[in-house]
Structures are given as structure tokens and as C-alpha cells.
Amino acid sequence: MDKESKLTPSQQGYKKLAGKHEIKRPVLKNCVKAFIIGGLVCTFGQMIQNGYVAYFDFTEKTAGDPTVATLVFIASLLTGLGIYDRFGQFAGAGSAVPVTGFANAMASAAIEHRTEGYVLGVGGNMFKLAGSVIVYGVFAAFVIVLVKYLFFGL
Amino acid sequence: MMIFVNAFVVGGIICLIGQLLLDVGKLTPAHTLSTLVVAGAVLDGLDLYEPLIDFAGAGASVPITSFGNALVHGAVTEAQQSGLIGILTGIFQVTSAGVSAAIIFSFLAALIFRPKG
Amino acid sequence: MRMMASILSFLIILSTTACQTNEDSENIQGQSVSKHTIISQMNAETAEKAAERVERVDKAQAVSLEKDIYIHLNVEGFDRFFLKEIRSQTKKEVEDAVKGSKVQVSTDKKIEMEITELKERLKDHQITKKKLEEEIKKIEEDMKA
Questions:
Q1: What is the mean pLDDT of residues A16-34?
Q2: Tens digits of per-residue pLDDT, C70-122?
Q3: How far apart are CA C129 and CA A130, in angstroms?
Q4: Does residue A96 fall inside a structural domain?
Q5: What does the alpha-carbon distance between residue B99 and residue B106 come to, in Å, rounded to a whole number?
Q6: Given an 8 Å threshold on Cβ–Cβ distance, is C109 in contact with A60?
Q7: What are the domain boundaries of chain B?
Q8: Does residue A58 lie within any of the structural domains?
């Protein structure tokens, strides 16, 4: 609210006007879609994990890796075929939050920048969105484990 | 059977939180995902994420939050064995499969597919 | 005369060795695995009962090799948030019930599959002690992984 008081009266007036014409987001509808689609993606992941435990030599713990790899593969494939983007528009966070969304972000950036060359285009742009995720994840993990190590004896 | 219901509900809730961050919090997708990853890391620091995985299976291990959990987990395991340097050597140990797969399959997709629209 | 005696004794020896190989092949065919001793699973059964006494454990399956016990627990519902605690609680219960035992507890679905299969084979006495040791070693490795 401090931000708003720093604006001049005409700027505040403009903000009010712009707000009236802003597309209202159907929050409830989006939330329901995200919940259902996100739930379905995770359920699908559970089926894959169960499959690896039942039919291959994996325990529940070690089946996590092939499950994630499989989901990443499927997401990259669907991204390449152009199907994932339609799915993403409908499902919002339901498709972006699971690890499939991470894979889609990387694959679609890689495909999109292919025309700029494989080194600069594909290689240089692959981590457009994924980069933030990895940077903040790693740094957060570093701080958390450091604190645990120094103050709580791990 | 119950494991599928738990996976559906918990996975759905985590995605729901993501949607709220997008719509109500007005965060960009990058901000949203980064927030969720950090949340996963914090929860594992408090030893709360593993029980969630025990309860919900893929419902907790598929969303991006589990990435944060895996980063902390790897670092903790290595730090327990090798001391402080373990934090650096261990961070990517558990997540190696996911990140490597994403890079490899994304590159393959760029080789095979053409950009659309 | 001597020739006859030696030929006869040779034939007798030959026939007895022949009979012996027959007996062996019968065993190999698995008709009655009486050569393979019945391996006692008493410790496993005691362990299962002790584990099922723990409140949040729904079902327990165990196999044992002398004093080594490998047990899987079935936990359902919201109790699954406390798996780590339940595992250590059950381990203590089983160690109390079977004195001097070395207990390893798991809640992993794969371990459940392996222990259940092993129990079936033990019940039908379709397994040798050596094979049991091998299978148990695999279960132990999977539990540690």
C-alpha cells in the first residue's frame, strides 16, 4: 500500500482506470482445473512408479529416478508434437507445477530457438525458465543445509 | 488403491497452491516455480517433506517441490558423510536423473521437431 | 573261477553305483525335497505377531534366517505420515520379542513382494538353505539401497 501512496494523483487515477479494463481472471475456475489436472498428472506418475516396482528390479525408493525420467521423456515428446502447449493453456498450474512442466519449459525453449543455431540458440536458451528454478533451489538448499549443519548438528 | 487417491489429492493441492500464486499473487510462472522449489527445500529442512512422500507417493514426488526436497536431501546425505564440503558435492546427487533427462530430451526434441506457430 | 568272481564283484559294484545315481536324480526332480531341511520360521512368526501388536501396523510379513529377521509392515491412511517412527517402534518391539535378534524393518512395496514370495516358497518347502541365504541377501541389499 506504500507503493500506491508514492504515485501522483493522476497516476493513481490511471491505475484505477486500467484496473477496470483488466481481464478478470476466473480464479476459482482456474484453481479447480489446476487441482484436477495436477492430481491426474501425479496419479499417472504413481502408476508409472508402481509399474517400475512391480515389473522391474526397483524398490519404491529407487523407482523415483526412472519415473521422473519417464515423465520428462513424455513431456518433451508432447512438447515437440505441440500437444503440451494446448494442454498447458487449459490446465495452468496443473501442467506447469509437476516436473513435466519443467521439462516442457526446457524443451519448448530449445525447440523455439533452434533457428538461432544449436550452440547459441538451443544451448543458450534452454534454461530460460528452468534456470531460475535451479538457481533458487540450489541456493536455498545450500543455505538450509548450512544452517542445519552449523546450528542443529544435521 | 488409497495411494492413488492420496497422490491425486496432494498433487492437486500443490498445483492448486501454484495456481493461487499465479492468479492471486500475480507472480510469473518463473517466480511461482522458484517459490515452490524453495518451499520444498525448506520443508525438507524441517523434515516434513519425506513424511509427505510416504503418505502421498507420487503426489509429493512429481511436483516441482520435490526438486527442492531432493536438493536438500542430497546435500544432507553427503554432508553427513564428508562434512561441510558434502553440501557442494551432494546437492545434485539425487536430482541428477531428472535434470540430465530434461537436458538430454530437450536437446533431442530440438533436433527432431520444428517450432510450431 | 577268479575271473568269474572279479566280474561278478565288478557287476555288483556297478549296479550299486547305478542305483545311487538314480536316487540323486529323484531328488533333483524334486519329488520329496527331504534332503533340503525344513528351515524354521518360528522367529519370523514371533516377529510378525509382535509387529501386528503395534497399534498403527495393519499387517506384517517376515522371513527369518536363524537370528536375522527381515520384516515388512503394512501401514495405511494418515498413519503413513509417521512411517519412520512406526518402523523404529516396531523394530524395538520385535527385538524385545525375539531375544538377541538382528531386525531389519521396511515399508517398501518391493520388499513386501519379495518377502511374500519367499514366504510362499518356504511354506511349500521348495527352497534350499543356500537359496534362502541368497534371496535374503538380496532383500537386505534392497532394504539398504
A1: 85
A2: 999 999 999 999 999 999 999 999 998 888 888 999 999 999 999 999 998 88
A3: 53
A4: yes
A5: 11
A6: yes
A7: 2-112
A8: yes
Domains of chain C are: 42-144 (3.30.70)
Q: Are A64 and B61 in contact (CB under 8 A)?
A: yes
DSSP state of A116: G
pLDDT in tens, C13-69: 666 655 554 444 444 444 444 445 677 888 888 889 999 998 899 999 999 888 889
**Which residues on A lie below 8 Å from C111 (Cβ)?**
59
Best of A47, A50, A59 to substitute, by most chain C Cβ atoms within 10 angstroms, is A59
Sheet bearing C102-106, strands edge to edge: C59-65, C68-74, C102-106
Phi and psi torsions of B26, nearest 5°:
55, 35
List the one residue out of A85, A97, A94 whose CA is nearest residue A37. A94
3-class DSSP string for B59-106: HHHCECHHHHHHHHHHHHHHHHHHCCHHHHHHCCCCCHHHHHHHHHHH
User: Per the structure, how many domains does chain A have?
Assistant: 1
pTM: 0.83
Tell me the shortest Cα–Cα distance from A10 to chain B, in angstroms. 24
Q: Which amino acid is residue A153, in one-letter code? A: G
Chain A CB contacts of B115 under 8 Å are 111-112, 114-115
